[in-house]
Design brief:
Structural class: alpha+beta
Largest sheet: 3 strands, antiparallel
CATH class: Alpha Beta
Number of strands: 5
Shape: elongated
Radius of gyration: 15 Å
Number of domains: 1
Distance between the termini: 33 Å
Strand content: 25-35%
Number of helices: 3
CATH architecture: 2-Layer Sandwich
Length: about 110
């Protein structure tokens, strides 16, 4: 995929450890911004819970984050390579998904 083909609302994540996937060496992942068709069935990747004192506590939903990563990967086109990611790269993909929602602005998140 060329830079011209990359969706405007996307993020490119350089991998700290390239992954051999079939005949290719994957050095980066491109994720597109989630859309209506992603968000409505999956929900937000973070929900807010209140402590007994009324303090708002954000709680991540790892299953939702995983589903967003699987649905929003643009490159490489086969999302099955995600299972090969190591800890650092997994955390970078996780943060990229969360950043899509954080960048939507206050009041727009869970």
């Amino acid at each position: 995929m060329s830079k011209a083909d990359t969706p405007a609302s996307s993020v490119t994540i350089p991998l700290t450890t390239p992954i051999q996937w079939h005949r290719d060496l994957v050095r980066e992942i491109v994720l597109r911004e989630p859309t209506w068709d992603d968000i409505m069935p999956i929900g937000h990747p973070v929900t807010l819970h209140s402590s007994p004192e009324g303090v708002q506590i954000p709680v991540e939903n790892p299953a939702a984050i995983m589903h967003y990563a699987e649905r929003c990967v643009v490159e490489p086109m086969d999302m099955n390579f995600l299972s090969q990611l190591g800890l650092r790269d997994t955390m970078r993909v996780r943060q990229a998904i969360l950043d899509f929602f954080l960048s939507a602005g206050p009041g727009d998140a869970a």
